[in-house]
Amino acid sequence: MQRSFLSNTLLCAAAAVCAAIVTTNAQAFDGIVEKQVFNLPAYTTVNGQVIKGVRIGYETYGRLNAARDNVILINHFITGTSHAAGRYAASDAAPGYWDTIIGAGLPIDTDRFFVIATDALANPNRASATVVSTGPASIDAATGKPYGPRFPVLAARDTVEVQKALLDSLGIRTLYAVAGASAGAWMSVEWASAYPERVQRLVSIVGPGVDSPAYAIAKMSSWGAAVKLDPNWANGDYHGKAEPLAGMTQAMRLVTLDALSFAWADKAFGQKWADPGKNPGEAATNQFAVDATLEKIGEARAKGMDANSWLYTLKALQLPSAKPERIKARSLFVGISSDQIFPPLLSKRAVEILKAQGTPAEYVEMNSPNGHADALGATIGLAGPAIASLLTK
């Protein structure tokens, strides 16, 4: 049954996955997937700090060929996980966020490709039983307590290096493609720059381009500000005490709003009151429906997240090391017309930069009124033909 526009967009915001139903000529990935764990005895960060017992979670779809050269690496969005396709159990309510483009006969064709999706280091979704990424919420063996703010600062490159170690352990030396949306696009560009000899193709969906702008850095800081203002954050030393839920709620409220659009808000709510009997114009505490809804979504998302891991994730994205001149991969940049986080002009500029240096690159725009979040669910199907085309070149 087709859900209402309001139901779809609220589910999209709450889970960062659009629930709208689209028609396709191929079946989505319908297999049961297993979350696997990759362990490193020790890892030295790009800033020279040693972390012992590093691990990340990952899942795979399709089969690795004998030459081990049919691999596509997927990087997730900022509040996401490695769960890009399929279900962990037949009873799961929803599949992975890119299920409409990963599967047999789909743009990322699992009959052809071996797809690996990993969690980033310091993944903030600590309430999920399938998220095991090492980060500030992990136990420091030296103290028996969570690292908290004593965990080393991570850069975007650190996740790339741990992913590389995973691939090396599997005997994989070449990536047919690396792909991701939003923060995942950022990480994919990082990969193409760090290891140009290993990455053949790059798919960047609603990302900041190839040169992280100051605006994107400021955006990450704005998403962490409310956490730091929450007294319960206690400069990061809150583990074992009351957590900064109020600050995380406001952070997730802002992320949700930024990921949507003017059209979404106006069509779903307009100037409706949260309570028909409480006029917002008569009391400061009376809310509009859009505010009350975003507050509920923010609180629901915040309850599953670790605040320090969230702040570390934001910091890592502020510390990219990608250099456009190092990128050699044939590239596809996809924007969304209504994106308020990373407007299409950033992807267009990336294509211009790469073309100017002789690197093959193209831009495709998805026309959607609902904003950035539409790249994290069924609407990504609009970019399917362009993705499929790149993967045949």
Short note summarizing the structure:
With 393 residues, the protein is α/β, with parallel strands linked by helices.
Keywords:
single chain, 393 residues, alpha/beta, two-stranded parallel sheet, 10 helices, 31% helix, globular, disordered N terminus
What would you report as the Rg, rounded to the nearest angstrom?
20 Å
Number of helices: 10
Number of strand elements? 12
Multimeric status of the protein: single chain
What is the typical, i.e. mean, pLDDT? Answer: 92
List segments where confidence is low: pLDDT < 50 over at least 5 consecutive residues: 1-27
Largest sheet: 8 strands, mixed
Indicate the structural class.
Answer: alpha/beta
Query: What is the helical fraction, as a range of percent?
Result: 25-40%
Order of neighbouring strands in the sheet with most strands = 1-2-6-3-9-10-11-12
SSE arrangement, N to C: HEEEEEEEEHEHEHHHHHEHEH
Distance between the termini: 38 Å
Shape, per Cα inertia axes: globular
Percent strand equals: 15-25%
If you had to describe this structure to a student in words, what would you say it looks like?
- The protein is an alpha/beta fold and 393 residues long.
- 31% of the residues lie in helices and 16% in strands.
- The chain has 10 helices and 12 strands.
- The chain has helices at 5-15, 156-169, 183-194, 214-229, 245-259, 262-268, 289-302, 307-317, 344-356, 384-390; strands at 36-44, 50-61, 71-75, 102-103, 108-109, 114-118, 139-140, 145-146, 177-181, 201-205, 330-336, 361-366.
- The strands form 3 sheets. Strands 1-2-6-3-9-10-11-12 form an 8-stranded mixed β-sheet, with helices on both faces.
- Strand 1 and strand 2 form a beta hairpin.
- Helix 1 (5-15) runs parallel beside helix 7 (289-302), helix 4 (214-229) runs antiparallel to helix 5 (245-259) and helix 4 runs antiparallel to helix 8.
- The longest helix is centred in the middle third of the chain and has 16 residues, at 214-229.
- It starts with a helix and ends with a helix.
- Residues 1-27 have low confidence and may be disordered.
